[in-house]
């Protein structure tokens, strides 16, 4: 199938990938509608992509070369133990064949690789969409309506397009929160018991939570990224009726005090001090949610990335899933003779895959936050068996191969 016009609602990672895929597939016109006026590259912190997923995506043209990435090889699980030194006691080590990225640098690489034929419009709010009648209608915030052959919802977990595809579908609160931050890696050089394994991910384990720590490339040099899962603060300052967060730099003194107390109480001394070096401007907290939809398509509408499924971060698959969605979209287009066939084939390729990722991430969340084991009593063999129980037959985390 050749020709046609496509509107991509949302211009972040999924949006850039889908816009590029549509141009490569032969669309006559592709427009990206991004509500943010500023630089998206200023958003976000760290993420990881499994090496096998990265190779598949690079071969498909969905992951451009030259984007800064940091190689990771192994993951160490540690607990606080007074007799084990400031870094804690390692209970298990597993292979971790991933590369880490800075969200902004990854987005910048995808944006720069977007074909010049794409019209990328910033500061454009989409108020609603409709996909019946053989066309997609996109209603903008100023009241105007634009018509396209297809509209792609790449507008994240608060998706406007999702409401038209799956009315009433909302992210569900998982019962715990995620604290995130990043700091200059050079700050660790002055700490006693300094981290000497930059190619390793460290997971700090404690009752009722865990924290994943790893290096990422940064705009001005290497940084340390961390993601801490724990019960919500008891003072009720976070809302759980709708996905929301305190963005970087917006944490209240009470929330910062709660985080500092958690680090001091539960973390090995070295890691507590290390994360304590994170500037308030680089720290934020958000409730954890997940969501799955019965269908990723309806009429002339299609959902991508977090608009289609919201997966808890434990699975380390968010960026890879968005790029895989775009790859499947391009493949469906290449094999379709009509828009209806394209949408049918995309749903067949990505609908079940998204739901499986949600289910796996829920299992990981239960085991690593909601129902944590007695970490300190586990042997390496017991930890490995515990891990396999979480996978439930899945090959691993980081997403599935598109060939499977």
TrEMBL record:
Annotated 2,6-dihydroxypyridine 3-monooxygenase substrate binding domain residues: 173-233
Keyword annotations: Monooxygenase, Oxidoreductase
InterPro entries xref list: DHP_3-monooxygenase, DhpH_subs-bd, FAD-bd, FAD/NAD-bd_sf
Gene3D superfamilies: 3.30.9.30, FAD/NAD(P)-binding domain (3.50.50.60)
Residues covered by the FAD-binding domain: 296-359
Superkingdom of origin organism: Bacteria
A GO term, aspect molecular function: monooxygenase activity
Pfam families: FAD_binding-like (PF22607), FAD_binding_3 (PF01494)
The name this protein goes by in its record: FAD-dependent monooxygenase
Natural source organism: Streptomyces katrae
């Amino acid at each position: 199938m050749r020709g046609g016009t496509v509107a991509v609602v949302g211009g972040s990672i999924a949006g850039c990938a889908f816009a590029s895929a549509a141009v490569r597939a032969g669309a006559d016109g592709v427009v990206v509608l991004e509500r943010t006026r500023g630089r998206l590259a200023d958003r976000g912190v760290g993420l990881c992509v499994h090496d096998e997923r990265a190779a598949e995506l690079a071969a498909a043209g969905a992951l451009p070369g030259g984007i800064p990435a940091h190689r990771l090889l192994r993951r160490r699980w540690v607990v606080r133990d007074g007799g084990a030194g400031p870094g804690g006691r390692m209970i298990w080590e597993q292979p971790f064949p991933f590369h880490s990225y800075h969200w902004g640098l990854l987005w910048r690489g995808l944006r720069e690789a977007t074909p010049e034929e794409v019209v990328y419009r910033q500061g454009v709010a989409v108020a609603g969409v409709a996909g019946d009648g053989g066309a997609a209608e996109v209603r903008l915030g100023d009241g105007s309506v634009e018509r396209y052959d297809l509209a792609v919802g790449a507008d994240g977990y608060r998706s406007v397009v999702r409401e038209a595809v799956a009315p009433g579908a909302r992210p569900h609160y998982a019962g715990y929160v995620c604290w995130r931050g990043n700091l200059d890696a050079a700050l660790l050089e002055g700490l006693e018991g300094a981290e000497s394994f930059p190619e390793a991910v460290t997971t700090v384990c404690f009752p009722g939570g865990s924290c994943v720590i790893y290096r990422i490339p940064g705009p001005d040099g290497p940084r340390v990224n961390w993601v801490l899962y724990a019960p919500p603060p008891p003072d009720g300052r976070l809302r759980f009726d709708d996905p929301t967060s305190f963005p970087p730099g917006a944490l209240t003194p009470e929330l910062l005090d709660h985080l500092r107390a958690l680090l001091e109480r539960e973390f090995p001394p070295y890691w507590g001090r290390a994360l304590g070096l994170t500037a308030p401007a680089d720290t934020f907290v958000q409730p954890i949610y997940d969501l799955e939809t019965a269908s990723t398509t309806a009429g002339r509408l299609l959902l991508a990335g977090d608009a289609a499924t919201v997966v808890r971060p434990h699975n380390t698959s968010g960026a890879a899933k968005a790029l895989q969605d775009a790859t499947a979209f391009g493949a469906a287009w290449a094999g379709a003779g009509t828009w209806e066939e394209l949408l049918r084939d995309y749903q067949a390729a990505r609908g079940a895959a998204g739901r499986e990722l949600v289910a796996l991430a829920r299992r990981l969340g239960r085991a690593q936050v909601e129902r944590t084991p007695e970490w300190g009593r586990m042997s390496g063999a017991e930890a490995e068996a515990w891990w396999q129980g979480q996978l439930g037959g899945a090959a691993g985390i980081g997403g599935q191969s598109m060939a499977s």
